[in-house]
Amino acid sequence: MDLQYFWDHFLGAGPSDINDTLLIQEFYAKWDTMAEKSWTGAGLKFIVMNVIYLIQQISLWFLVPTIIFAYLCYYFIIRPKNYVRDLSEVGYDYFIEQAATRHQKKSIQQLVKNIRKTSKIGNIPPVYPNGWFNILESSEVSKNQVKYVTALGENFAVFRTPEGKVHIMDAYCPHLGANMGLGGVVRGDCLECPFHGWQFDGNSGKCTSVPYSEKGKLFKVEFVAFAGLSAFQNKFHRKNYIHIPGVYA
């Protein structure tokens, strides 16, 4: 029996043609022999045919719930979670929702007064709570790219060096106040202002180069240090983020 005969009579046969046990045993034996001569073609067709055979043999009432269950497991367990909550959502809205669910006929002013009465008197919290603030996802910044981000009332220029290291600094250029986040160019570890070519180091914020001046005072731009990390791995979000650790304005 040659390879062409094997392909025509066994691999070319549909799943419904292979019914009795002897023919199936002969099929596997011939496949083991012929697959050594043409492993890629015979193996691929064998796998495809077996998948089709299993799909035809499995009941539709069992297959559909299995697919739905597998998708739900992927969506809720395997798929990375991205929980986002806007800062403007924090306030007294949840008290209003509770009052609505309990059918309490109280105005917003009355609810706010009740909250103030029951709240404990203590030190005023900082303007920004201690912790990490997500301003940009790491995947959104490629090598030699500059991103302009406004967050927490500040303007930031985020850029990634050719080596893949991320730097965050104030987008304000101390020369004439240009926005380096818009049109800035990455030069090694430095960010170059698009207007007059001043370069600022991403590690220290110091001005390292002025194109038209060899001597003179070098300015410094404020840079944002974030624990020496170019990306922060959040164990809850399971995604790489660029963060500012604990901005205490």
UniProtKB/TrEMBL annotation:
Keyword Repeat attributed: no
Q: What Gene Ontology molecular function terms does this protein carry?
A: 2 iron, 2 sulfur cluster binding; metal ion binding; oxidoreductase activity
Sorted keywords for this record are:
2Fe-2S, Iron, Iron-sulfur, Membrane, Metal-binding, Oxidoreductase, Transmembrane, Transmembrane helix
Q: Does the keyword Acyltransferase apply?
A: no
Name the Pfam families on file: Rieske (PF00355)
Q: Provide the Rieske domain boundaries.
A: 132-230
Task: Please identify the protein, giving its name as recorded.
Answer: Rieske domain-containing protein
Residues that span the membrane, as ranges: 58-78
> Species name for this entry?
Bemisia tabaci (Sweetpotato whitefly)
Q: Where in the cell is it found?
A: Membrane
Q: Which Gene3D superfamilies match?
A: Rieske [2Fe-2S] iron-sulphur domain
Q: Name one GO cellular component term.
A: membrane
